[in-house]
Specification:
eight-stranded mixed beta sheet; about 325 residues; alpha+beta; four-stranded antiparallel beta sheet; Enolase-like, domain 1; BirA Bifunctional Protein, domain 2; 15 strands; about 25% strand; elongated
Length: about 325
């Protein structure tokens, strides 16, 4: 097994890195990888992104949003969170086992005096509180298993950026499950930095697997291939938002000019049907607005451009453009 050294905290690069290592013919060995992201929400492969995030808070606090290859629920990453990835070759479906990959992590924590347990479908817990969620992705190339490790994460931000009122979205996407969480650091008796914890984790994982770590730095060719994946997939709206399952969105807002109720049907991230109701006054046919929104991305900039081009004040008397745009999003 090789240990890939990665110093990037760019979430788009790190998601692309995982895919590159998993699919590249250059890397045929089993791989272990540790990585961190700057403030980011990572949504599961089959989730509706807008349903999982507090869009206004995410935008105002410069939190990145990226979709991963594996299923499962949305998670929040920051500089106090450490992520691990195992890539195992020559695996068949009958051998897929979460426990195989979480046991080295549990062993590392035991070395630090912490008793952790694998619980439920994909969590690692201390005293009934979750500090790690895990997910997997399987193809003919092998198995990719990755998980989070809440070491010293900001739970205040975590609670706000994923705090969405679910009744506004009706979708077939996988919903995230809220659990009681805990930081590893607060459970430790001694003082450890995240870097010290990271080093202990690498040492213990390879000792548990009875292997010596062979460290590899990515070369410029690798870096270029990963950056290309960012451009074509992980840095795009189409992947991070447009890949969401079909969903319906409904929201009612009371604005100075009256009540506005927006109903949208969204497919592949684009508006397929739109209706707008309310007790507002209008000087033009509101159907002109709904027709203009068909085929537009369910994304703030795109919606704003359409409403601005139509001169929305003609259709919504005594209403500001900024207020109208909020009717289309959480």
């Amino acid at each position: 097994m090789i240990y890939i050294i990665n110093r990037s905290t760019n979430p788009f690069f790190n998601m692309a890195l995982e895919e590159y290592l998993f699919t590249s013919d250059k890397f045929q060995q089993d791989i272990f990888l540790l990585w961190q992201n700057e403030k980011t929400i990572v949504v599961g492969r089959h989730q509706n992104t807008l349903e999982e995030i507090n869009n206004e808070y995410v935008k105002n606090n410069s939190i990145q949003v990226v979709r991963r290859l594996s299923g499962g629920g949305a998670v929040y990453h920051d500089s106090g969170n450490l992520n691990f990835t195992f890539i195992k070759r020559n695996v068949n479906r009958q051998e897929i086992n979460f426990n195989y990959f979480v046991q080295p992590v549990i062993a590392a924590l035991a070395k630090l005096g912490l008793q952790a347990d694998f619980s439920g479908r994909n969590d690692i817990m201390i005293d009934g509180r979750k500090f790690s969620g895990n997910a997997q992705y399987f193809t003919s190339k092998g198995l990719l298993h990755h998980g989070t490790l809440l070491f010293d994460s900001d739970f205040g931000v975590l609670g706000k950026c994923l705090n969405v009122k679910e009744h506004k979205y009706i979708s077939k996407g996988v919903k995230s499950v809220q659990s009681r969480v805990v930081n590893i650091k607060q459970c430790m008796s001694g003082e450890y930095t995240l870097e010290e914890f990271k080093n202990k984790l690498v040492e213990t994982v390879f000792a548990y697997l009875e292997q010596k770590p062979m460290q590899i730095e990515l070369d410029e060719e690798d870096q270029d291939a990963i950056r290309e994946l960012v451009v074509t997939r992980y840095g795009t709206w189409e992947w991070n938002y447009g890949e969401s399952p079909q969903y319906n969105f409904r929201q009612e807002k009371i604005l100075p000019g009256g009540t506005v109720t927006v109903f949208l049907e969204i497919g592949n991230g684009f508006v397929e049907r739109c209706t707008i109701h309310g007790d507002f006054f209008t000087f033009a046919d509101i159907n002109e607005v709904t027709r203009a929104l068909i085929g537009v991305r369910h994304e703030e900039t795109a919606i704003r451009e359409v409403l601005a081009a139509l001169q929305a004040e003609k259709y919504f008397y005594q209403m500001e453009l900024d207020d109208l745009v909020t009717c289309f999003f959480e």
